[in-house]
Amino acid sequence: MIRRICKWVVFKWVYPVCYYAGSPRKIKKKRIILVENHGEQLSDDYILIYEHLKRENCDVRIHYLGLSIFSWGKIVFRTIKLIWDMTAASCVLINDSNSVFGAFNLREETRLIQLWHACGAFKKWGYSVVDKTFGEDQKALDTYSGHRNYNLVPVSGKAVCWAYVEAFGLQDKPDIVKPLGVSRTDVYFTESKKQEAHSHLMNLGFPIKGRKVILYAPTFRGDTIRGAKAPDQLDLSVLYSLHQEYVVLIKNHPFVRERTEIPESFRDFCMEIGDRMSIEELLMVADICITDYSSIVFEYSLLQKPMLFFAYDLEDYYDERGFYYPYEEFVPGPIVRTTEELLREIRQIEQFDRDRIVAFCKEYMSGCDGHSTQRIVGYVLNAE
User: Fold this and answer.
1) Structurally, how many domains does the chain consist of?
2) Deepest in the core among 15, 43, 64, 98, taking most CB within 10 A?
3) Domain with 132 in it: what CATH number?
4) Is a pLDDT exceeding 90 seen at residue 68?
């Protein structure tokens, strides 16, 4: 009860007063703010945009809020610093939901762009999961909605615009959701980036040479970010029969903080990659991608390589969160429930349906053509 009252006071009084106190300041056209909700380093959602803006001599300021790391008091302090900085900024870019952006009305001279951290539309979020285990209740979303001030929501393709309108409650201004593409996907169209990714992998010291790469990149389990856990159903002892031809790289969701412990007997075959390589690099080096409910399916489709879906808890996921499309009809690859089934599919991977993946990519990734960053920055700088 006390925490709820404190939150109400902060969001309804402290944050608005801070913003309106700074509103008389003159807007600086070249001041651009990037906001990271959770991490303490700039994510791939921003890197290409940041580099482009710096080449345009913009005053780019990065704010790390640490919502899943710091105490509530420290988060409030960092948020107040962000709000004060925003009062003189021409544009603010975010890559996740944050109710602070609904605590006050932004000045007309300041634009707010939501660069959602995932491509396509897979797992439901926001208003699409109201009153579900994973989501918030309707009253909380309406009271602390951070979506109403958006001026632009770039997405990966025209076919998914409707899902973002629903998730963000933008039915009164659906036209701000535009299929401009996702900035970080530009790297998949650059041959030098692919070569750099392969070199990076070889330099890690893991025995890759002569073997193909299987990437296992599942989403997290759990109802909260702070309690996120990695799935634990992959049986390496079953897959080990592939060790002469393949290696397995495990990349857990960024919210998962505990490392996956690889038994000593499998360390010549499997490695948890952690932060040593980005997900974009891993997708570029992977010959096969195994995932479950992760949006990386959209990015990997750009590379037209085989995907497998290890969805052992599909029914639970339907109950807790749900999907924008029927899962069994939507995913462009075989669905398996056990590691034994996974092994069977890997052994016949040469028979994968490339045409299905190409069609999937054309449908959901039509805005990702290697020039997404340029289009988004054009909007940021008012060049369009």
Assistant:
1) 2
2) 15
3) 3.40.50.11820
4) no
